[in-house]
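Box 3.1 A note on notation
Throughout this textbook, protein chains are presented in two layers. The first layer is the amino acid sequence; the second is a token string describing backbone geometry. Keep the layers aligned when reading.
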Amino acid sequence: MRCPFCGHAESQVKDSRPSEDGAAIRRRRLCPECGGRFTTFERVQLRELTIVKRSGRRTPFDRDKLARSVAIAIRKRPVDPEQVERTISAIVRQLESMGETELPSSAVGELVMKHLKQLDDVAYVRYASVYRDFRETQDFAKFLGEEGLTEPAESNR
């Protein structure tokens, strides 16, 4: 494994253990060149996935990109990081088990929304606002009404 600090081609594994959810192996590494320490995760990959964008362009599936988009949606929300990691792993497992090597980006977006709705309503709405390209406040209101996430306004009497 290449050192992220100095670029040295090799590093030593100092410690290996399963992650909390058991879906990955966490490895602490040491660079013999610069002495830098870093962590890597090893995960099972059932198949190479390709995402077909709306434009027709094909890109390799990137778990880190998925994790970043979920992290943006849950920013400053009271969600346990382990719960987020389990959610991301569940999404990836579902995508891999669909039996297809090429998946439309819409399938990924809908699956992420489904999982975020179970995780946190605010994160779900944040993600949906970007994914569905909300332009005006009416878009939010319509979406919230369709999803049953709005409560009737209380009267001031």
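The chain has a mean pLDDT of 86. Residues 11 and 32 are 6 Å apart (CA to CA).
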